[in-house]
Amino acid sequence: MTSQEVAGLAPELKGAKKGQGETPVLSAGERFTSYDVEAFEVPSGREENWRFTPLKRLKGLHDGTAALDGRATVTVTGASAETVGRDDPRIGEAGTPADRVAAQAWSAFAEATIVTLDGTPDPVTVTVEGPGAGSTAAAHLQLRTTTHAEATVVLEHRGSGVLADNLEIVLADASRLTVVVTEEWADDAVHVSAQHLSIGRDAVLKVVSVALGGDLVRVSPTVTYRGPGGDVDLVGLGYADAGQHLEQRLLVDHAVPQCRSNVLYKNALQGEGAHTVWIGDVLIQAAAENTETYEFNRNLVLTEGARADSVPNLEIETGEIISAGHASATGRFDDEQLFYLQSRGIDLESARRLVVRAFFGEILLRIPTTTLPELRARLEQAIEAELAATGV
Amino acid sequence: MSTLEIKDLHASVTTDEGPKPILKGVDLTVKAGETHAIMGPNGSGKSTLAYAIAGHPKYEITSGEVLLDGESVLDMTVDERARAGLFLAMQYPVEVPGVSMANFLRSAATAVRGEAPKLRTWVKEVKSAMSDLDISDEFADRSVNEGFSGGEKKRHEVLQLALLNPKIAILDETDSGLDVDALRVVSEGVNRFRNESNGVLLITHYTRILQHITPDFVHVFAGGRVVESGGPELANDLEKHGYERFVKAPA
């Protein structure tokens, strides 16, 4: 499916039971998973899972040629962190790798970081620093809450090099977690990340993803619910510059009743070869009665030569749901909006900035300023800098 | 003292079938202290005249001139025209989701005035202008025109007129779609704006608004140009006889 074909709103529920449009997706719930890298074929680029990703830029993460002998530095402030071995029984609690790079990272990490969130009100910051230019590394991080705990975590990625990792988020029953994940990499960085989000009964997870830096960033979150009453918001923004590849592939697997999911991702693209990919798979299994789900992807193409791919996919195996919907829209600046702003004296460049700021505002507003007073301002400034860099 | 001069203006609209001429030689001069009403049947090109002067990219000027105080407006970008002192109150104001009215108004005032208004006086100024137009405070936090009713949009156009204080204001069917009360509020707003140093070009299909805003001149627009000009009495004639004689006349 090309970006042209997905422009405009995808009709609600159209072809939902058999998957969206002409994309013959294997039921997302039946996808193959394994901890063993050798259980996965080396991708050729033709697989549904890899067809949008420029494999040549993965620095060998997908075909076993990456040395993975570098080390990503993980710094945790605001909570106690444990460094554990591969045999820690908690490892793997949230999920199993579903693609070769995730399995590669799983097979290669030497030790994992586990952060237990037991309800300390102050926000926790986890900073992951890349292994450095020319170096490749595997990493494993787990965030876990205790029952009834409420917590806020900022997970920052910065630095240079190539990182493949698995992030496990394990929400205990009735706990509430807000996680802001930032990709603030240097220009050379490659980050391929599998997120395993396991939601306990009546637990609430909010994830705000902000992807700005890096040469290639591919993040694959999988949401599973362990009991009824789970509630997940995944929102994100991406700002792709010339030559930059930002990819988000989500699977929300509703296998138990009475759960909710809401997904909103927005990307802006500018410059030759800027590429964003958004795959949103939502599966409502037969047992998942009274599910409520909505997913929406919007892409704003700021200049010629950029490409946004967007594939929402909804599979529904029960009619006993509250609501299910998906939508995708890709477009350029609205000339009438720009004319209106300009007719009030605002110059074209400022008018475009107002519109882009407004476009991302909806996502940034989800970052709680009470607990994270400086983060939103910092990310707003980073976006301003992106805008200023090419004079959009 | 400001003057807007429109001289033999020809303009085309871009369509799928190619350019289509709409304005066919418009001549009109609006001086400070004057209010001109342009009246005409649907499809006569009234709105095209407004948008062509404002610089909408859909319209191409094929010949003629538009001068503001002797300066060629047609050589300016849309925002330069606004900063030079032109204002267009639109028939269909555009929604800009995510941009708050407060942010928009301040950005516009900063651009037009050449410097950011002092925050303390600005807040008072906006509140007072909003209250003049019966606009409640909550609108400041809402996105520009988003979810506004037709009447609310028109009030906000007049609010911008008050705050940006242009030399020449073009009001494109600001009266259309308004109920009697809203028409009164909007007309009062326009009347507060009018003074000896600015001019108003009021484009309308109906004579109703002219009971609230008394024009100095009335022009009949048909076939893409001004076909007859007169005083306020011409509006009364149109009220009685309609546009029939102008539509039937060969363009």
From TrEMBL, chain A:
Residues 1-25 are annotated as: Disordered. Residues 134-359 form the SUF system FeS cluster assembly SufBD core domain. It comes from the Bacteria. One of its GO terms (biological process) is iron-sulfur cluster assembly. InterPro entries: Fe-S_cluster_assembly_SufBD, SUF_FeS_clus_asmbl_SufBD_core, SUF_FeS_clus_asmbl_SufBD_sf, SUF_FeS_clus_asmbl_SufD. Belongs to the iron-sulfur cluster assembly SufBD family. This is Iron-regulated ABC transporter permease protein SufD.
Automatic annotation (TrEMBL), chain B:
Residues 4-247 form the ABC transporter domain. Gene3D superfamilies: P-loop containing nucleotide triphosphate hydrolases. GO terms for molecular function: ATP binding; ATP hydrolysis activity. InterPro entries: AAA+_ATPase, ABC_transporter-like_ATP-bd, FeS-cluster_ATPase_SufC, P-loop_NTPase. The keyword Lipoprotein does not apply. It holds the Pfam family ABC_tran. SMART domains: AAA. Keywords: ATP-binding, Nucleotide-binding. The keyword Nucleotide-binding applies. Belongs to the ABC transporter superfamily. Ycf16 family. This is Iron-regulated ABC transporter ATPase subunit SufC. It comes from Pseudonocardia oroxyli.
